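note to self: dont lose this again. the chain is below, predicted strucutre after it. 189 aa total, dont forget to put it in the shared folder this time
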Amino acid sequence: MTKNIMIVGVGGQGSLLASKLLGHLLLTKGYDVKVSEVHGMSQRGGSVVTYVRYGEKVYSPVIDKGEADAIVSFELLEAARWTEYLKEGGKIIVNTQQIDPMPVVTGAAAYPKNLVEKMQAMGLNVDALDCLTLAEKAGSLKAVNIVLMGRLSKYFDFAEEEWLQAIRECVPAKFVDMNLKAFDLGRNA
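---
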């Protein structure tokens, strides 16, 4: 059976490293893995979506509405934007950080309030945490992606050491220790 994970965020937040890490781990576990990246205006802070699909045999890299087992979101509004892709019983793991999209920056719109509560009121299973503060504790604001992967790891049956090994293999050596700490903070928050 194919499993589907969407990683959503804003350009420059490290979603590509997160998907690379997850894909690498799944390959080492013997799964057929397809990863596809859909960029909006990622260099300008626009939406970035990555699909990670894995199973015995995966034929398409694309996730359709109602098919995502999990949505991992780097930002609140991005989580809310993609909820229709979540399957019944799926999980949303979201960083509570708010990054103003262009209509909010220009004053044409206001950032929606109480998004976690609104998603929960829709009956969605939301695991929200302040990944930015945890990343800062780990040593870098850029480690939000690994904090989120740590949180995601709680919902997999893989040994924690397998995740840590994937970090060691996917992250440049000088950033490994900081990323291992970020992973631990996310997993155990």
